[in-house]
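User: Structure please.
Assistant: Input sequence and predicted structure:
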Amino acid sequence: MGLGEIGAPGTKLTFYDNAMYGSVDQVLSVNNCSNIDSYFDADFTALHKMTEQSTLSFSNYLLSSYDSNGERERMVSFSCNDTFGNNVMFANATGKISAPQAITQLYRAKARAATGNPNTYLSVAQNPLPFTDRQMSQIDALSAMLIALFILIPFTFIPSTFVAFVVRERECKSKH
């Protein structure tokens, strides 16, 4: 029987790139990234290059221009070399994996700029941690309950087939 094969789902490796979103029509807004802005992926159909004075004013621009992209999605934005010399990443929180995608884009562009090769490819992958003993015991208990239900529910129909003849004889007051 195949019911004994019910168990914990396997973990699989997940790669983060632009292909995981439904729309390939995406917008990337960058601020003060003149050294790497030409090295971002060609997957972005619109690249907004800006030279705002501060990361705060760039953040205000992103908030004010939220609806101006039409059908295009803006999942990530960057502000490079802010007043403290840091790179700031803005990720759309509605996409649960937009932050890893943003980090991938930033470091991919930095690697391309450092090597001077626009074909340099950097990928980020996630391999989930294995289940803990407690999680495995919960999964085993759930699978045992499912197996019990699949086996016990059909057994309720077996006695009813024999009882049906007795009930019919009493109802019709007939004997064979």
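DSSP finds four helices and six strands in the chain.
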